[in-house]
Structure formats: structure tokens, C-alpha cells
Amino acid sequence: MLSNVFPSPFSRMQAGFATFALALAIASTSALAQGSREVTLIDPPQPTPADGTIEVLEFFSYGCVHCANLEPPLEAWKKQLPPDVKFRRVPSGFNLGGLDEISVFHTLEAMGQLDRLHRKLFDALHTERAMLGHKPTFLKWLEKNGVDPKQYEAVEKSFSVQTKVMRGRQLASQYKVTNTPTIVVGGRFALIQTGGAANFLAAVDRTVAQLRAQSAPRNAGSAPRPAAKN
Question: 152 in a domain, yes or no?
């Protein structure tokens, strides 16, 4: 009975270690957000998949030249991701080139054409200076690139695509995205590119590593990021 009223020294020591570990986690999270002007806290944190993985979202705009320049190194970076990191692109909806990019993105995704045309859309807007915000011009561009314009318009109007478009229009506001490219890690940290692509992606890697370290007791089997191949 006395042990319930007066905790043993060992119990007090355990409680002290638990309090210290919690404080350390909070401090390291705060330091991560304050240690780089690239990183800001998302308040409130957004929900992410509860499957032990770290979700990484890239908010981009096809009309954003910085997003276009980031695309090649980002594609190479994405191929090196470990199994515990899930990467997903999210169109911001800023329509910097006059293109309804959320609708375009999800329609091409539904048609199985997104991977083939994603980079080409950047090139069309920034290298070829194509006026893809003009719907007839965009449909001609699709036809030139092997997509049936009539099929595209039918898929674009489908219920499943329209549902994804509605959800997509909510995301940038939900994550408080005001610049592109912005990369969100774990629903908690937003990283804005302030320098070269290599430094930006290295900052993303550091943020992922920090979240992995904080959740290590739950995800002890997570694999480290593999070394880049020469």
C-alpha cells in the first residue's frame, strides 16, 4: 500500500526519463522548424496515413518556373526514397500559366497518361511557350502528344475525377501553401525552396530523418535512405 502512495526511487527515475524524452522530442521538433528559414511548422498538423510511413507531398504549379527547374533533380531524388517514405505530387491550383492544373493533373492521372506527360507540360509552358491555358490550344497539344481530346474531356467530366478535383482544391488552403514549390513532410513541416535544388532536397531529407528518429520506437524496422549510386 505504501508503494502506491510513495513511488519508489526507480519509479520516479522512470517518470523522469519519460518526461525528459518528451521534452527532448518537443525541443528537437521546434529546433527543426527554427533552424532553417526553409522550414515552417504547419499549424494545426494535417492527418497522414497511419501505416508507419512518412508522407512527403510536393505542392507545385505547372506555370512555376522554379517547379519546372526542380523537376529533374526531384525525379532523381524520388527514385532513391526508402520504403518508409511515400511521395506524392499535389497541384497547387495557382494556375500561373492559365492552366486549370488540378483538373489536368487528375484527368491525366485517371487516363494513365500523367507519368508520360507531367514533364512535357512543364516543357510546353516554359520552353515552347505554349498557351495551354487556352482550352482549344491545350486540346490540340494533347492530340499532338497522343491523347484523344474527346476521351480527355469525357474523363475530365467523370464523377471520380470531379471528386478528386474538389478534394484537390481544398488541399493548398488546408496546408496553407502560398509558394511553389513547397514540400510538406509528415503533415507537420512545410519546406519552401530558398536556394538550389540540392540544398532544398537535402533539407527535406533532414526533416524526414528527424521525424523517423522521433518515431523510431514505433517504426524500428524503417530502412535508412540508401546511398546515391554513382
Answer: yes
Q: How many domains does the chain have?
A: 1
Pairing of β 189-192 and β 85-91: unpaired
Q: Is residue 230 part of a domain?
A: no
Q: How far is CA 44 from the centre of its chain?
A: 17
- Label residues 43-63 b or e (16+ Cβ within 10 Å = b): eeebebeeeebbbbbbbbbbb
pLDDT by position in tens, the chain (length 230): 333 433 444 344 344 433 333 333 333 444 444 344 578 999 899 999 889 999 999 999 999 999 999 999 999 999 999 999 999 999 999 887 789 999 999 999 999 999 999 999 999 999 999 999 999 999 999 999 999 999 999 999 999 999 999 999 998 889 988 899 999 999 999 999 988 999 999 999 999 999 999 876 554 444 555 544 44
Beta strand 54-60 pairing with 85-91: parallel
In a domain, 128, yes or no: yes
Measured CA to CA, the distance from residue 31 to residue 161 in angstroms comes to 40
- In the sheet that holds 182-185, the strands lie side by side as 39-41, 189-192, 182-185, 54-60, 85-91
The enclosing domain of 129 has a CATH number of 3.40.30.10
- Residue 197 domain boundaries: 33-214
Task: Specify if 38 maps to a domain.
Answer: yes
